[in-house]
Structure formats: structure tokens, C-alpha cells
Amino acid sequence: MKKLLTMLGSIALIATTSAAVVACGGKNPPQSSEKQPSENSNTPTDESKKDDKKGKDEKQTEPNFSDIEKEVFNFEPDENNIIPQAKIKKELAEKIKVSESHLQELKVDYEKNTISVLVTKYNKTLNLKFTKILDLGEIQAENKNNTSVVSQAKVKDALVKKLKTTPDKLQELKVNYDKNTGTVKGPKSSNPIEFKFTVKKAEK
Questions:
Q1: Most buried one in 22, 24, 79, 82, CB count within 10 A?
Q2: What's the CA gap between 42 and 49, in Å, rounded?
Q3: Which of 77, 108, 131 is the last residue in one of the domains?
Q4: Is 103 exposed, middle or buried (0-12, 13-18, 19+ CB in 10 A)?
Q5: For residue 89, with 0-12 CB atoms within 10 Å meaning exposed, 13-18 middle and 19 or more buried, which class applies?
């Protein structure tokens, strides 16, 4: 009988302990799983935002082609009064602010001084006008009888420096001192090279 009572007491103790463990475990709240973004969410991603911004920036930086076509470009010739198409293409790309690869179907009329070119980036064909004038920059004048005078020798020196040539290769030099312009022929040029300059007045 005594043994029976002991066994019943042990069983009761085990049941009580198990109930206490279950009760304590129930007090801990269940851990919530991390919320995952829905695949069907309409919230724009960082990549889509970047693409939208890039598209807007490209649209905002598109050149004003109307103004570009009104402009008269100037391309300086070499000593033979030649302007290679590669030079024209390079300088046009810099002025229009596109890469040279975006300029296609380049056509240059050297008699009429006109250019036709397709800007593939914007699918736009431009019709442009240009001049062929060599800019000698500023030439120092000399003081003669209280007058600033630019000698022809200094003009020729400026031409030699600009064209990277030698004086003997430049012929038929003509200078218009009223307009600060002139012409000269190179060793292989059939037509004279036009040039312009400004005068730095001599000190008195």
C-alpha cells in the first residue's frame, strides 16, 4: 500500500512539472518571420528610378538643333588651304557634344561651304554653313610716329607659326590693315588662304 502511494505521488509530481513547463513556454510570443517584398508590388526599384532619371537627363541635354543650324561654323585650313573631313567631323562632334560615331553620312561642299550630316543619336539630319578663315590671334604692333603699326613681316611670322611651315612656302601675302584681314597662298594651294587677326597696340 505504501509503495502504491509513493508511485501515485511521483506520477502527480511529473504531471505538475510538465504542466509548468508548457505554461512557461506559452508565455514566449511566436517569432514573426521577416516580411518579404511582394513580387507584384508596384513600388519602383532603384534600377527603374535610375533608368527614368537617365532618360530625363538625355532629353534635357538634347541640343537645340534650330540654333545649331543658324550658326556659321569656322574650320581653319592647313598650309594648302585644305580642311580634311576627319577634322570637320571631330570639331563638329565637340561643338554638338556627341561622339564622332554618332555623326554619319557626312557630306561637305567646299565650293558652297555647306555641310550635311546625320546625328544618329537623335535621328536628325543637320544642314550647316561654315567659313574657312585662319585666326592668327593678337599681333603686337610697333610705335611709328605715335601710331600703332603692324608690319607685314610680323603678319608673316604669325602665319608661319600658325600653319607650322616655313616662310619660303608662303607666297602672295596681302594684308588689309583697315579690316585686319588678308590672304596668302601656300605651296600647293590653288586658292588663297583667308586669315584674320587682332592688333595689340604699341606702348607710347
A1: 79
A2: 13
A3: 131
A4: buried
A5: middle
Domain co-membership, 138 together with 101: no
Q: How far apart are CA 89 and CA 192, in angstroms?
A: 23
Report if residue 43 sits inside a domain. Answer: no
Which cell numbers hold the place of 33? 518571420
Residues paired with 142 in a beta bridge: 149
Pick from 167, 174, 177: nearest CA to 198: 177
| Percent of the chain residues topping a pLDDT of 70 | 70
Number of structural domains (the chain) is 2
pLDDT at site 20: 44
pLDDT confidence of residue 184? 96
Q: What pLDDT is attached to residue 190?
A: 83
Nine-digit cell string for 177:
590693315
Q: What is the mean pLDDT of residues 43-55?
A: 58
* C-beta contacts of 183-191 below 8 A and 24+ residues apart: 184/156, 184/159, 186/78, 186/79, 186/80, 186/81, 187/79, 187/80, 188/79, 188/80, 189/79, 189/80, 189/81, 189/82, 190/81, 191/81
The domain in which residue 87 lies consists of 63-131
Question: Across residues 119-148, what is the average pLDDT?
Answer: 92
pLDDT value for 48: 58
CB atoms near residue 44 (< 10 Å): 11
Cell for 30? 511566436
